[in-house]
Amino acid sequence: MVKQNQSTMALLPLFLILSISAEMEGAKKSYGVNSSDNNSVKLFVFGDSYVDTGNFRNSGAYKPPSGMTFPGYPAGRFGNGLVLTDYLASYLKIETPTAYALKNSSNLQNGINFAYGGTGILKTLVDGPNLNVQIDSFEQLIKQNTYSKSDVQSSIVLVNAGANDYTKFVLKDRNLFEIVKFRKSLIDELKVNIRQNSALMNPLEPCCALESVGYDCGKVDEKGQKKYTLCEKPELSFFWDNAHPSQNGWNSVFKQLEPSLSQITGK
C-alpha cells in the first residue's frame, strides 16, 4: 500500500504544472501581463499544501522537522524548505506573498496566499477553506479596497487544487488497481525523468519516512518519541514525505516550468 501511494503521489507535480500553466496563460490574455508590469505585479495563490506558505496553523507544517532547510525552523510550509510559491515569486522578482492567516501583521503589497493545506475543490478530509471559500475571501478583500482593480489587472494567479480530492477518493476506496493501471504510463515516464537527474539520491524515497502506519512526518507518540526517520541529506531528495516534494524537488519542478513562464510573462 505504501509503495502504491508513493507511485500515485509521484503524479501530483504534473497536475500542478498543468494547472499553473493554464492559469498563467489566462492571466496573460486577460490582463496583458508583460515585462513592463514587473514593478506592480502581485501574486495571488489558491490551493492546497503544495503552495501553502503558512495558513494551516495547526498542522505538521508548523512542527519539526518542517522548514529544516529553509528558513531553518517550522514556518508553515509542507516540506523541508521552499515550495513552488516561493520559486514563482522569486522569478517575478517579488517577495513571497504573505499567507492569508497572517495578513493583519504582514505587508500585502506582493499579493496574498489563500492556499490551505489539505483542502481541495470539494470538501476533503481536512476541515479548511476549499477553493471556492478561498476565492470568496479574495473577493471580500477587493470589496474592502485592500486591492484595487489595477492591482488585480496586473496580477499573476497561481492555482493548485484537486490533489486532495483525489487523495480522499483513494483513502475511501482503498483500491488503487484501476487508478494505477490507468496512469501507469505517466508514472513510469516520471520515474525515468527523475532518475535522469544525477543530483538526486534515491529520488522516489521520501526523506521523512514513517516508522508506523497512522503517523505523519513530524508526529511523535505519547512518550514524545519520534515516529519518523530523516534521510541524511534532504537537499538531495526529491520527495519530503509521501505526499510533498522537497525543496530540491520543487526546484526541479520549477526548472521544468520556467520556459513556459518565460513565454507567458515575457521575461
TrEMBL record:
One of its GO terms (molecular function) is hydrolase activity, acting on ester bonds. Keywords: Hydrolase, Lipid degradation, Lipid metabolism, Signal. Transmembrane segments: none annotated. Residues 1-26 form the signal peptide. InterPro entries: GDSL, SGNH_hydro_sf. GO terms for biological process: lipid catabolic process. Belongs to the 'GDSL' lipolytic enzyme family. This is SGNH hydrolase-type esterase domain-containing protein.
